[in-house]
Write a structure and sequence with these properties.
By secondary structure, the protein is α/β, with parallel strands linked by helices. The protein contains nine helices and 22 strands.
Length: about 475
């Protein structure tokens, strides 16, 4: 895409506004405060190449997210790229065409980059890259979309390391003559640590006034030899770089695939993200941290919608504050999310699925959700085999409940005395399929029953005066 002078000026003015950035909500830090409103981040976004792939029209992409009612995107910094065909991904936005990788570091005058074009100079910045990065963040902010900027990524295999500007074969500085498992370490990095520190300081300085960005230290650091000491060091670099800023941005750590209990976290980390976290054990294990627990990558469960929709509902209704489905229908040339990926793609995503994700967002935002807490124990009843239930509640006031695999189920809800209104919501359409008044006068739990025709259903129960 081309940069228009007027558009870029507007972007700079937006960044210069200096509003307080995305923060943990002071009353309930399992959720966010964004532009003075309680916020849950829910999306289905592209495969992280919005900035580093100059053939990707991010304005059209962000327009699509906003039109679909989604409010988060995830993007990589350009310190990492993938070869075409990596992980079986078709039209991968993280795999720019030969000669097209846009990195924070400027190209030199010496040919020889592994995927076309000149090598990189790790002592110089590329102004085109930073113009694109700042405009991307500003355009996202104008549409109410928060940007998760992943600073680094492990070099999973040699093909990824072979494309990194930090590899000695791809730069003119003689740095990075090491193995791929040594790149993100404090003691074996071949001179790259100073380069990485400079990159972090440059990025956080350029985005100092953006209110819609947070920084993830490293994508999937549990691969590729990334050490915890190095991760904590990068956190220290971010906090030191921002110490004189009027506002500081949130920092995220990607903890594990699936679930893992976080032990001895760095005090400056505010978001703990997981990948492929179904069932949502990761939320329960780490809820006591009093920070946001997120699921920011999905996949490897086929291309159909059902698993990812159920995963989203379970995670958010278990107390998670962030969900990002990895949506392979966004590609260069199909920034409206209509790419028809092959049936063996390692994940899903499509316009219909994004409508389903919006239903979840509308449902949770229909509550005063800052006052909700996980309360699975207040729903009683024998669930069928493989059925699931998640509950958020503010006792005596509001209840958000999700069932899957329990059509027609008779169940009980512990309710204090009072009058309530219960609604059963079709998670595909967002419409109420059934409702009833509940008058609770005794100590016995209220008796309720799910519709027979819905194998997935959300239930909204509110006190009425």
């Amino acid at each position: 895409m081309k940069f228009l002078p007027t558009l870029f000026l507007l972007s700079v003015l937006t960044l210069a506004a200096g509003a307080a950035p995305l923060a943990l909500h002071p009353e309930n830090p399992h959720y966010f405060l964004y532009r003075e409103k309680p916020t849950v981040l829910i999306t289905s976004g592209e495969h992280y190449g919005s900035v580093l792939n100059p053939d990707f029209d991010y304005v059209k992409y962000l327009d699509t997210l906003a039109a679909d009612g989604l409010n988060l995107t995830r993007t990589f910094s350009g310190s990492y790229a993938e070869p075409e065909g990596a992980f079986g991904i078709a039209a991968n936005t993280l795999a720019p065409k030969p000669g097209r990788l846009l990195s924070p570091w400027a190209r030199s005058d010496q040919p020889g980059y592994a995927n076309g074009g000149n090598k990189f100079d790790l002592t110089k910045w590329d102004p085109v890259y930073f113009s694109r990065l700042k405009d991307f963040v500003a355009q996202a902010g104008r549409r109410g979309v928060v940007v998760e900027l992943d600073l680094f990524c492990p070099m999973y295999k040699d093909p990824q390391w072979n494309l990194s500007p930090m590899n000695a074969v791809n730069n003119i500085n003689g740095l990075g003559a090491i193995g791929r498992d040594e790149v993100h370490t404090l003691d074996k990095n071949g001179g790259l640590l100073a380069v990485q520190e400079a990159l972090v300081r440059k990025i956080v300085t350029e985005l100092r006034d953006a209110d819609n960005v947070y920084y993830e230290i490293c994508n999937e650091p549990y691969f590729g030899g990334v050490t915890m000491e190095w991760q904590h060091h990068i956190v220290d670099v971010i906090t030191d770089a921002e110490k004189g800023f009027p506002h500081r941005h949130l920092i995220s750590q990607n903890v594990a695939n699936g679930a893992k209990k976080v032990v001895a976290p760095h005090s400056a980390i505010s978001i703990f993200n997981f990948h492929y976290a179904n069932p949502p054990t990761a939320v329960g294990q780490n809820y006591a941290l009093n920070k946001v627990i997120g699921l920011n990558e999905t996949g490897f469960k086929g291309t159909a919608d059902d698993h990812y929709r159920m995963e989203a509902w379970e995670f958010i209704l278990a107390g998670g504050g962030l969900y990002n489905n990895l949506d392979y229908s966004f590609t260069a040339g199909h920034e409206d999310g209509t790419f028809a990926y092959p049936p063996k793609q390692p994940g899903g995503g499509n316009p219909g699925f994004r409508k389903q994700v919006k239903v979840l967002g509308d449902f949770i935002r229909g509550f005063d959700f800052v006052r909700l807490k996980p309360a699975r124990e207040i729903v009683r009843g024998d669930l069928p085999k493989d059925a699931r239930c998640q509950v958020l509640a503010e006792a005596g006031r509001q209840y958000a409940i999700y069932f899957k695999g329990a059509p027609g189920l008779k169940w009980q809800l512990d309710l204090p005395q009072g009058n309530y209104r219960a609604e059963w919501i079709d998670v595909l359409s967002g419409k109420a399929s059934y409702s009833r008044d509940v008058r609770q006068s005794g100590e016995a739990p209220a008796e309720l029953q799910n519709p027979l025709d819905l194998r997935e259903v959300a239930v909204r129960v509110r006190r009425v005066e």
